[in-house]
Amino acid sequence: MVRADLLIFDFDGTLVESGEDLIIAINHTLEKLGLPARRPGEVISFVGDGVDKLIERSIGPGGMNKFDEALRIFTENYSQQMLKNTRLYPEVKDVLEHFRGKRKLIITNKRYRFTKEIADFLGITPYFEEIIGRDSYPYSKPDPRVLAEAMDRHHTDGGHTVVIGDGVNDIKMARQAGAIVCAYLNGLGKRDELLDLNPDLFCENLREITKLIA
Prior knowledge:
The structure is a single chain. By secondary structure, the protein is an alpha/beta fold. The protein has helices at 19-33, 40-45, 51-59, 67-81, 92-98, 112-122, 145-153, 168-177, 191-196, 209-212; strands at residues 6-9, 16-17, 87-88, 103-107, 130-132, 161-165, 180-184, 201-203. The chain has two domains: 6-17 and 86-212, HAD superfamily/HAD-like (Rossmann fold, 3-Layer(aba) Sandwich), CATH 3.40.50.1000; 19-81, DNA polymerase, domain 1 (Orthogonal Bundle), CATH 1.10.150.
């Protein structure tokens, strides 16, 4: 069992099931632009590097002249759509309650405004000391600076910090910052890709971390 003073959680695919609302907003955007819809699995594979990359991958190289319009349409639609189907994973509240006494942060490549609004709506904001979004700093996951600075602010080091996430970026960020990483294998990320990176810990169900982290 690993002893941790600071827990860092990813958001989409780790704490919340948000894929359906992202798929709806992307395909609404593509429809408005006269571009072909994307299959759900395609859209999910594009998630993880922030909204700009999500849009860029969805419209494809041939649609880049429509990027600004696509971003505007997506942002407007997702703002209206994002609370309709997005839900906490079933075990999240129990896990956050279990670790109530530990310092916890969210570090995500989702925009801060979207993350905060969803976290407020789902009632989990009070569990976290900080929410760090894609636009909170000039750099974002997998850049280790976003984590290193968070550890400095919260007076801990990598040996006592655990990053829990479902994406390759979570593992890369943790590794480069010298932190411990726990891969969540049933989120939006591809489990084989996560396991190939040899995370320090992994779990099939988020509740398992209560047995892995003290």
